Amino acid sequence: MVFEYAPAPESTKIVNLKSNYDLFIGGKFVKSKSGSNYKTINPATEEVLAEIIEASQKDVDEAVKSARKAFKSWSKLSGSERGKYLYRIARIIQERSRELAVLESMNNGKPIRESRDIDIPLVAAHFFHYAGWADKLDYAGLGKNPQALGVAGQIIPWNFPLLMLSWKIAPALAAGNTVVLKPAETTPLTALLFAEICQQAELPDGVVNIITGAGQTGQYLVNHSDIDKLAFTGSTEVGRLIAQSVSGTNKKVTLELGGKAANIVFDDAAMDQAVEGVVNGIFFNQGHVCCAGSRLLLQESISDDFLNLLYERMKTLRLGDPLDKNTDVGAINSASQLAKIKELSESGKSEGAQMWSAPCEIPNKGFWFAPTVFTNVSLSHRIAREEIFGPVLSVLTFRTPDEAIEKANNTPFGLSAGIWTEKGSRILEVAHKLRAGVIWANTFNKFDPTSPFGGYKESGYGREGGRHGLEAYLKAGK
Amino acid sequence: MSNLDVKRTAKLFIGGAFPRSESGRTYEIFDKNKKFVANVALASRKDARDCVVAARSAFTKWSEATAYNRAQVMYRVSEIMQGRREQFIEELSYWTKSKKEAEKEVDEAINRMVWFAGWSDKLAMVTGSNNPVAGSFFNFSVPEPTGVVATIAPEKSPLLGLVETIASAIVSGNSVIVIASETQPLAAVSLAEVLATSDVPAGVVNILTGSYKEIAPWLASHQDVNALDLTGVDKKSIAQELENQAAINLKRVLRPNTKLDGLTRIKTFLETKTVWHPRGF
Q1: Residue B39 phi/psi, 5° resolution?
Q2: What residues of A act catalytically?
Q3: What are the boundaries of each domain within chain B?
Q4: For a tag on chain A, would you pick the N or C end, based on fewer CB atoms within 10 A?
Q5: What is the ipTM of this complex?
Q6: pLDDT for position A49
Q7: Interchain CB contact of B246 with A (< 8 Å)
């Protein structure tokens, strides 16, 4: 007997949305000097949530000035005092975690199960981890008395809005930098709530500045002459432009860009676990994950059996209301992202791959894409080479471990990869030979503030997380 | 009885061989008194591209050699350099103010090679980590070489600067293409001969002589080069243009005039790989 799920929506009452939000500069919410407004929506319903400012060049300049001013005192504050502010922030995030999780799911479209159990706890953990680093900078790996870089410009994506904010802000502040952060155009709300948290924590004015807007605002920030450090997470295309814009300057840069990760399943893998891992690898957060396991590499001898198990498992995925506690797959973040996923899927079909989608009901309103698998994929297909950034899995096969490694590495990206096998020596050898920054063996899509994250090749440079992530915000002392 | 000197032809060093420039070109070099010293190969775009092919094919084996082995090979380089000490001094003396200055540079260069060699099997200890993640996982981070590194060696430190740029890249398993000092390339030509006789696998180090202004743009924009070391670039506008080109495939770039200690220099050409595995019975 199969039981139907009853709706179990999380209440949105906990969130107090304002009708419009100002910029957060110098510790206060301030009106824009000249920017225009735009509306931010809930991608699952297309309802308008609030009006947001598209920050102008003048606004960006104000924010950088405010960060520069705050840098003088913040960088001189003792590490232990800086750490205590970060601990405060971590605690307030824990206390307000439900509110943040609900707001994240409303603005981003991700299932509440993920925002509640993964995103927000990791956000608090990041602040907690880096809080403890603030008075231990001598052990960051740059020798005694390392120095903060100055003002950091930080631009983050829409797939993990608050988590990416924490990856950026926590290490920057611990090291003594001040920041101007621009959240993604479509997901500004939790960053603005974070601004309130900074006020609540009595963080000194100007240490954190949040400016909202789209690509143009980001460009103003990248090109601002008084920025010492840029940290960007987003597409490889934009990362390249940033790398070009900073050429000839003294700006330090870390880039966390796209990926096309191989998830390799060997014939001796624990099949059910591997199926779960593959599902989590590509359908977690609707596949809006730079490190998603978007290329499944199956050993030929198990390919048919594995795909049958995968299809059976995918039939049970529940797509729908992100705020429903039973939802596995939420909404696609925006109309334009949905269009991109559809366009690439069409290319998969027209290039000769076979498409299979999980049979789920698609809601009438909002942006949705059913979990999808492509078979008969060849390495030259666009769906095997380009980042789709959606719930679309491309399946390739291999016969020998060497062939698997060859295919896995045959991409300009190098962010992550997965290995599924019960043989320890094989795990270590394959992990050694894969040219990627994060290797998950018999697991996938795991994150932790102590664990360095970042890519090889065109997936960017620099690491976030752990001691390595701290180093990216410091320079050697004199 | 008279005995005519047999003079050395200064050639390139690509994939373990000593070819002339594919272009057939050479250029003249002059000492500090503007006196003719030698004809040197003037490398071309094709030579640079040949270097990339050689460096890429050497990368896998060199990066997978044990750290102990890489250390021994590099220490061996310093041994052979020591044996050639007098030759290096003579070659540097064309441009140094005194012989003493040349001696100092050669001795420092040999010491530097020894110092870098010793880092090979310490890097993972010092830059790697075991990460205490909040869960039942074993999680560790290790340094790995970034791949093929293209380097513009300093113009005014033709041996020590050259050794520094080469050694800091290859110690972790990278392979390099280095453009030697344009006006003082003799020590680089001799270092190539040292490398060829000291167990450094062919293609791990490739040395070009000529004009970096001509060759470097081809390397900066090459899709199969992973990192670009601009140490020897003495013109700001050129450095900017090369960095701009390097963004094509997001090369790791070391800007000129960057003050670095040796370890930080090594780290510039390292990736960090983090591996997760669950714990359990």
Answers
A1: -95, 135
A2: 256, 290
A3: 8-278
A4: N
A5: 0.97
A6: 98
A7: yes
- CB contacts < 8 A, A to B, total 107
With CB atoms and an 8 Å threshold, state whether B276 touches A125. no
Q: How far is A443 from chain B (nearest CA, A)?
A: 7
Task: Indicate yes or no: CB of B131 within 8 angstroms of CB of A257.
Answer: no
Give the model's pLDDT for residue A478: 77
**Predicted local confidence at residue B2, as pLDDT:** 86
Give the model's pLDDT for residue A2: 67
Q: What's the pTM value of the predicted model, to 2 decimals?
A: 0.97
Residue A161 in tokens: 């809005």
Cβ-proximal residues to A252 (8 Å cutoff; 6+ apart), any chain? A149, A228, A229, A230, A472, A475
Beta bridge partners of B277: B138
Q: How far apart are CA A238 and CA A158, in angstroms?
A: 14
Average pLDDT over residues B83-107: 98
Three-class SS of residue B245? Answer: helix
State how far the Cα of A430 lies from the Cα of A439, in Å rounded to an integer.
9
- Do the Cβ atoms of B247 and A244 come within 8 Å? yes
Q: Do A468 and B141 touch (CB under 8 A)?
A: yes
B276–chain A Cβ distance below 8 A for any pair = yes
Q: Residue B137 and residue B123: Cα distance in Å, rounded?
A: 24
The two three-digit tokens of residue A151, written as one number: 């003002």
Question: For position A5, what pLDDT does the model report?
Answer: 86
Give every CB contact of residue A447 below 8 A, 6+ residues apart in sequence: A118, A122, A163, A453, A465
Q: Is A145 on the interface with B (CB under 8 A)?
A: no
Q: How far is A58 from chain B (nearest CA, A)?
A: 27
Q: Per the CB < 8 Å rule, is A458 touching B250?
A: yes
Q: How far is B47 from chain A (nearest CA, A)?
A: 24
Q: What is the Cα–Cα distance from A183 to A187, expressed in whole angstroms?
A: 7
The SS3 assignment for A26 reads coil
Which chain B residues are closer than 8 Å to A143 by Cβ?
A: 261
* CA of B203 vs chain A CAs: smallest distance (Å): 20
Interface test with B, best of A117, A453, A456, A474 (most B CBs within 10 A): A456
Local mean pLDDT, 10-residue blocks, chain A (478 residues) = 84 96 98 92 98 97 98 98 98 98 98 98 98 97 95 98 98 98 98 98 98 98 98 97 97 97 98 98 97 98 98 97 97 98 98 97 96 97 97 98 98 98 98 98 98 98 97 92
Q: Decide if B180 contacts B209 (C-beta within 8 A).
A: yes
Binary contact (B127, A240; C-beta < 8 A): no
Give pLDDT, residue A178.
98
* Dihedral angle sign, alpha carbons of residues B261, B266, B271, B275: negative
Q: Are strands A262-265 and B175-179 parallel, antiparallel or unpaired?
A: unpaired
Percent helix, percent strand, percent coil in chain B, to nearest 5:
45, 20, 35
> B280 contacts in A (CB within 8 Å)?
none
CATH of domain B8-278: 3.40.605.10
Nearest CA in chain B to A439: B275
Residue of chain A minimizing CA distance to B262: A142
Q: Which of A213, A211, A248, A75 is nearest to A151 (CA)?
A: A75
**Record: contact A142-B264, CB cut-off 8 A:** yes
Helix axes B236-246, B212-220, angle to 10 degrees: 20
Q: Does A443 touch chain B (CB under 8 A)?
A: yes
CA distance A111 to A89: 25
Across the interface, whether the CB atoms of B240 and A467 are under 8 A apart is answered: no
pLDDT of residue B245: 98
